[in-house]
Write a structure and sequence with these properties.
This protein is mainly beta. The chain is built from four helices and twelve strands.
């Protein structure tokens, strides 16, 4: 039986079904533990994991502990340091349905990026390209229809609606953002 490799569309769909939670760093010690750089707001989630996808490989977690700013994971499939070092740089992902549930009105960054932005009358304004964390409130970076970057404060007075199923964000931009040419 011949296996064909997945098409680009299948790969993209598979990737959109995954949530990145970390990146493999350097080896730690001589027993195959790897430093994981958490890329999640919920680093405690690693304690509950039994398995995780690293790159394209499903791996089983033998042990997990916190060390400084890292999570140290040991994978059953890579018991020796030298073998485990091959994982360095790979991303750790989990199935989207395994993402930590959020409170009402909270969204994952990966859900916001790519949303089409419209004004309150439905006129297209652009697309969200990034989410900036400023401390006080997030700021959505939008590429407008002319290709210019516009920063949108993530405030209820500005962002009127986020509709993930429709892939859009409705905003009421302040005059100074509209006339910022």
């Amino acid at each position: 039986m011949i296996k064909s490799s997945p098409s680009a569309a299948e790969k993209k769909k598979h990737q959109s079904d995954r949530v990145t939670i970390g990146r493999v760093g350097a080896a730690q010690g001589i027993h195959g533990e790897m430093r994981i750089i958490p890329l999640t707001d919920f680093p405690e989630r690693f304690q509950e994991l039994k398995e995780v996808t690293v790159g394209d490989e499903l791996l089983h977690i033998e042990s997990c502990r916190h060390h400084k700013n890292f999570i140290l994971l040991k994978f059953r499939e890579y018991p020796v340091r030298e073998d485990a070092m091959a994982l360095t740089g790979r991303m750790l992902t989990v199935a989207r349905e395994d993402a930590v549930p959020l409170k009402e009105g909270e969204y994952y960054t990966f859900d916001i990026i790519g949303l089409k932005v419209v004004d309150e009358h439905g006129m297209p304004l652009g697309t969200i390209t990034n989410v900036l964390r400023t401390g006080a409130n997030d700021v959505y970076q939008m590429e407008d229809v002319d290709g210019k970057d516009v920063l949108i404060p993530a405030l209820k007075s500005v962002v009127k609606e986020i509709d993930l199923p429709k892939g859009r964000m409705v905003v009421a931009l302040p005059e100074e953002l509209i006339d910022a040419d």
